[in-house]
User: Which sequence fits this backbone?
């Protein structure tokens, strides 16, 4: 690292390590920022006080572990903010992260926004918070509904105050930005929409010849209700009933609705058309996208969806749901082809059938290469001003 490079701190509860790929997109972003001769990136990973994680280096970027004191199960998050603030200040000094610090970039409102403001209380620094989900204030987190109701106003009031103090609020789609503006007391100083770009060193068209004799449809997603795998399974069933039998669906993921989906497949004699796989090695996901003919994720609560961009980066067409973040990136002339109605197996069936009949590739728009999205972001006037 040259002495002239400014420090760019990323604060995040999600960041990959050698045993987990959770937070891979944040690493991709950090890698591109770090390649800029102007900045040197340091990562502060936020974990529970009960975690055994230690500082590590991941592919050339130092990751410092800060353990946050909180009640378990996301009960009244921020209750111990004063204690955590004092501890965090000392942590920054101990880790020597203050000198030449220029930017603090947090991911996900709590606790990153809170701790970014702690740094701003110590020194003059540019502060950013990036919102990755539609539930921007994390009101759906936690296990107990009665606790969620108690803490709703507690969390809204405290978190909005933190967001309003920050220099820049970044959303991964306009859908996310609108979710923030649904709170009347949200008054940001600056805003920016930073679409999740895709790393084309990881996801690209291999130009491999497809040797399978079936039309392969793929889906990578956790089996949660909002991902709506069941509508996709019913759409496949409708296609089969219409005589389209040279198709196969590959589902990769685990989660609470997995067994329900497996039971549906068994009960409706779809086992020869549907393959379930718990996971695929991260290094092999590009092969999966290149193998399939169509990617489908019928999620109806999606801020953007990196998987759509990953599929698109391999020139594989995809189908999503109307009014989700990804719809902002689809050209007008493709809207009717790629977007189905929410929770509608029949609409999904028609969109899949359209792509089945075309059997085409879908050229990627290089504007959404992460190198280009980050370049545009770093060119924003916020980074050049003295405020």
Assistant:
């Amino acid at each position: 690292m040259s002495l002239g490079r400014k420090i760019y701190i990323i604060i995040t509860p999600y960041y990959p390590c050698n045993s987990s790929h959770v937070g891979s997109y944040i690493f991709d972003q950090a890698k591109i920022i770090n390649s800029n001769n102007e900045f040197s990136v340091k990562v502060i990973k936020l974990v529970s006080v009960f975690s055994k994680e230690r500082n590590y280096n991941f592919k050339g970027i130092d990751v410092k572990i800060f353990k946050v004191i909180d009640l378990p199960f996301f009960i009244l998050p921020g209750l111990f903010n004063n204690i955590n603030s004092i501890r965090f200040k000392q942590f920054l000094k101990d880790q020597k992260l203050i000198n030449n610090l220029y930017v603090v970039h947090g991911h996900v409102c709590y606790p990153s926004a809170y701790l970014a403001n702690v740094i701003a209380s110590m020194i003059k620094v540019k502060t950013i918070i990036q919102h990755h989900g539609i539930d921007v204030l994390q009101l759906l987190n936690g296990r107990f509904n009665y606790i969620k109701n108690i803490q709703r106003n507690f969390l809204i009031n405290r978190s909005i105050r933190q967001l309003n103090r920050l220099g820049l609020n970044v959303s991964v789609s306009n859908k996310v930005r609108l979710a923030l503006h649904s709170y009347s007391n949200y008054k940001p100083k600056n805003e920016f929409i930073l679409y999740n770009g895709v790393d084309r060193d990881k996801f690209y068209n291999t130009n491999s010849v497809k040797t399978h004799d079936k039309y392969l449809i793929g889906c990578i997603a956790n089996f949660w209700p909002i991902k709506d795998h069941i509508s996709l399974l019913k759409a496949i069933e409708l296609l089969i009933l219409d005589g389209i039998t040279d198709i196969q669906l590959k589902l990769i993921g685990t989660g609470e609705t997995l067994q329900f989906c497996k039971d549906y497949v068994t009960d409706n004699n779809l086992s020869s058309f549907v393959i379930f796989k718990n996971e695929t090695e991260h290094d092999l996901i590009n092969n999966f996208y290149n193998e399939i003919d169509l990617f489908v994720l019928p999620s109806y609560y999606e801020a953007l969806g990196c998987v759509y961009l990953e599929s698109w980066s391999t020139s594989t067409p995809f189908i999503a749901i109307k009014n989700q973040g990804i719809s902002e990136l689809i050209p007008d002339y493709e809207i009717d082809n790629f977007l189905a109605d929410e929770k509608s197996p029949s609409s999904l069936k028609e969109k899949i059938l359209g792509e089945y009949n075309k059997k085409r590739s879908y050229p990627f728009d290089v504007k959404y290469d992460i190198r280009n999205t980050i370049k545009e972001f770093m060119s924003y006037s916020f980074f050049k001003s003295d405020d």
Observations:
- The chain has twelve helices and 14 strands.
- The chain has two domains: 6-197+369-383, 215-367.
- The chain has a mean pLDDT of 95.
